[in-house]
Design goal:
The protein is of the alpha/beta class and 298 residues long. It has a domain of 149 residues: 3-Layer(aba) Sandwich (Rossmann fold), CATH 3.40.50. Helices cover 29% and strands 15% of the residues. It is built from 8 helices and 10 strands. The strands form 4 sheets. The chain has a 3-stranded parallel β-sheet with strand order 1-2-3, with helices on one face. Strands 4-5-8 form a 3-stranded antiparallel β-sheet. It has a two-stranded antiparallel sheet with strand order 6-7. Helix 2 links the parallel strand 2 and strand 3. The radius of gyration is 21 Å and the shape is globular. The chain starts with 13 loop residues before the first strand and ends in a 15-residue tail after the last helix. The structure holds glutamic acid.
């Protein structure tokens, strides 16, 4: 009798929070940190943290360490080592070489000014002169439409060829592009569900294209409502009136919980972040997350 086929168990549920070290953690990033932690924990899964420090010119010295310390003060402790994208160049290079060999990527000498006529969208190369340091772009074939079901935002579809065009994988300044790094790292870390702000909803079709071209699995996606100021802009680190006090993080955690549409928790008096998180994980219901939030003063 042949041996029975071994049971194939599904990969463990794994979420992540992936801040860019461009400033301190604020109310907007805490929403993504707590939201991703709750989705992972309430599903009995793991939660990882990744520092997305590929954009060296935008990095603020010391920000990554402060973000990690604030997460720790909030009780949001990752289930594994923190991955830093600055140390992942070899993995990105291998992915890029594969895309180049497959004909899915190409060197591009176009400048921003060259692409002004098409609103910045790269449809084909129109460079006026060759650069010593060309960018590398992903080739988006004509009529490429990608759609997916987001757990909060619902069905989202994009004509990537028309709305985005051939997108950058390696910048002319030598920095790896977010789109490539995030896809390579989500796969390397075994992430099964990506929970992040809705400002990245329209990046997801690009990331799905890259996953397909690299033979990588596509995780589930949940895009949280974005915290905006009254001017409609995404809240940034400069919103001084939304401080996250690492010495007393509970009020910020409770506000984020409320913004995630969750019912008030009855906490014992004197409860700290850990007691809050235990109760929150037990009562979290992702179906209550709103698609958008009213603007906050900022
Ligand atoms: N690093 C990105 C940011 O801070 C988030 C990337 C992601 O979650 O995919 O906006």
């Amino acid at each position: 009798m042949p041996d029975p086929a071994p049971a194939i168990s599904p990969p463990p549920h794994r979420g992540r929070f992936a801040p860019s070290p461009t400033g301190d953690l604020h109310a907007g990033s805490l929403l993504a940190a707590l939201g991703s932690w709750l989705c992972a924990r309430s599903a009995g899964g793991e939660w990882l943290v990744r520092i997305e420090d590929v954009d060296r010119p935008r990095e603020v010295p010391g920000a990554a360490e402060r973000q990690l310390a604030t997460l720790h003060a909030c009780g949001l402790v990752p289930d594994g080592p923190v991955l830093r994208q600055s140390g992942r160049g070899n993995a990105y290079r291998a992915a890029l070489d594969r895309l180049l060999a497959q004909g899915d990527a190409f060197h591009c000498h176009c400048s921003r000014a060259d692409l002004a006529a098409t609103g910045g969208v790269h449809l084909h190369c129109v460079a006026h002169r060759r650069r010593p340091d060309p960018a590398v772009r992903f080739r988006v074939r004509p009529r490429t439409r990608i759609g997916f079901q987001d757990r909060v935002q619902g069905w989202f579809e994009q004509d990537v060829s028309r709305e985005v065009g051939d997108f950058v994988l390696l910048r002319a300044d030598g920095c790896w592009a977010y789109q490539l790094a995030v896809v390579v790292d989500d796969a390397a870390q075994g992430v099964t569900e990506v929970v992040r702000g809705a400002d990245l909803l329209d990046s997801t079709p690009r990331q799905m294209l890259l996953q397909r071209a690299l033979g990588l699995p596509t995780p589930a996606y949940l895009h949280l409502p974005l915290l905006r100021g009254r001017d409609g802009r995404k809240l940034s680190k400069s919103e001084a009136d939304l401080p996250l006090d690492p010495g007393d993080p509970l009020p910020s955690l409770q506000l984020a919980w409320q913004r995630l549409g969750q019912a008030a928790l009855a906490l014992p008096s004197g409860a700290g972040p850990e007691a809050f998180l235990d109760a929150a994980a037990a009562h979290f219901d992702a179906r209550r997350i709103p698609r958008s939030l009213p603007p906050v003063d900022g």
